Amino acid sequence: MIVQSGYGVLANIVSGKFARPQQGGNVTRSESTEPENTADRVTLSSAGKAFAASEGNAEKTRTAAQMHLVKAASSDPQSADKIARDMAYGSTMIGYDPASLFEKGERRLATTKQLVTDEFKENFQKEAPIIDARRRSLYEAEKAKGTDPLEILNKLIDFDNSQSSSYREATGLGYSFPRN
């Protein structure tokens, strides 16, 4: 089985009957003799079920930078309004790692250092404008309702955090960088 991120940057080949458990679950291959009935089956432990349930929440875990941004904006409504407006009307782009770009001439993601292929770039360029438009619509709807600027900022952050892992990898929005 091949497991990939949405833009095909990460690939991991899992072979045999068993794969390493992910987030408290066990992955097993069914033992059917009929090829068309062979399927992967996932059994979740209690911890895995709790994790899966938490993933369904609209509000994802925020990064340290996002928490800092909200904290800083909470004391100044005008600042919160400007930040939210800038987030809503900005265009998202792929965040490249400057070191690999300048030193090696390679285009790698700033987040994961994965090589950016033409296919990855094409898929991102299809998805990003749609997400940008949805973010603008969210902002405009909340402004029209008279929602507090800090609450709008929180909703925009949650919106970004709800996007695909591939999108967050590419943009860095809502992506938690590993600690060194």
Quick gist of this model?
The chain has 180 residues and is mainly alpha-helical.
Q: Could you explain the architecture of this structure?
A:
With 180 residues, the protein is mainly alpha-helical. The protein has 7 helices and 5 strands. It has a 3-stranded antiparallel β-sheet with strand order 3-4-5. Strand 1 (2-4) and strand 2 (11-13) form a beta hairpin. Helix 2 crosses helix 3, helix 3 crosses helix 5 (118-145) and helix 5 packs antiparallel against helix 6 (149-161). The longest helix has 28 residues, at 118-145.
Task: Sum up the structure in keywords.
two-stranded antiparallel sheet; mainly alpha; globular; disordered N terminus; 5 strands; three-stranded antiparallel sheet; 49% helix; 10% strand; 180 residues
Our measurement of the CA-to-CA distance between the termini, rounded to an integer number of angstroms, reads 31 Å
Strand order of the largest sheet: 3-4-5
Pairing-aware structural class of the strands and helices?
mainly alpha
Low-confidence sequence ranges: 1-42, 51-60
Residues in helices, as a percent range:
40-55%
Reading the helices and strands in chain order gives EEEEEHHHHHHH
Major sheet size, sense and barrel closure:
3 strands, antiparallel
Question: Mean pLDDT, as a whole number?
Answer: 76
- Oligomeric nature of the chains: single chain
Strand content: 5-15%
Shape: globular
- Rg from C-alpha positions? 20 Å
Number of helices: 7
